[in-house]
Amino acid sequence: QKEVEQNSGPLSVPEGAIASLNCTYSDRGSQSFFWYRQYSGKSPELIMFIYSNGDKEDGRFTAQLNKASQYVSLLIRDSQPSDSATYLCAVADQTGANNLFFGTGTRLTVIP
Amino acid sequence: DGGITQSPKYLFRKEGQNVTLSCEQNLNHDAMYWYRQDPGQGLRLIYYSQIVNDFQKGDIAEGYSVSREKKESFPLTVTSAQKNPTAFYLCASNIGGLGNQPQHFGDGTRLSIL
User: What share of chain B is helix, strand, coil (3-state, %, to 5)?
Assistant: First the structure.
């Protein structure tokens, strides 16, 4: 069973601060990584994906990938109360089945 | 608008009853997935289908069944053999192929036992 680990939180940050969400994975051969945001009672929404080592920026979001350390992170700059949600890390299965393995999520609260 | 439609939004199951959750997509995606989410847990894969008329068991397939007779549709039946069916059920799809395509989700169905 491939494992994806996230700190369950809750993580609280003040409005305007940087929120840092972390994820580690067990399968060294993994190539594709995804971050989803899930508001309470709602379905997950894709916010970022990253395939290559380094940083990928999209607006206030930056995904960081370090395959050698088997570590992927999500930074949220200028955090807003609307960013308060659970953030799910997902890692793609490399066996060809195109499945995703999900972490249990980190709950983020942005305090106004 | 293109998207994934799940119905119903809420569903109640009586003891010994089979219930079917609907999932329809108009994104022309080849691959479709069913997940179960319990409070405080991540998403667990029930079944997936990479192509019409073919599907595979995921990690927690026992007590569930699926069909894929049309590209657009991937219904999930929760059978009476599933003794703890209360959960949030999510359907997802992607274009399939290589393992680097993001999955997109429907709005989910909440299933409870009466």
Answer: 0, 50, 50
Q: How many cross-chain Cβ pairs, A to B, lie less than 8 Å apart? A: 63
A 30-59 residues inside an 8 A Cβ radius of B = 31-32, 34, 42-46, 49, 51
d(CA B44, CA B38): 9
Asked if the Cβ–Cβ distance from A98 to B101 is below 8 Å, we say yes
Each residue's pLDDT expressed in tens, for chain B with a length of 114 residues: 679 999 999 999 888 899 999 999 999 999 999 999 998 788 999 999 999 999 999 999 999 999 999 999 999 999 998 889 999 999 999 987 766 788 999 999 999 988
Identify the burial level of B29 via C-beta atoms within 10 angstroms of its C-beta, where 0-12 means exposed, 13-18 middle and 19 or more buried: buried
> Minimal CA–CA distance to A88: which of A99, A77, A74?
A74
Radius of gyration of chain B measured on its C-alpha atoms:
13
How big is chain A by its Cα radius of gyration, in Å? 13
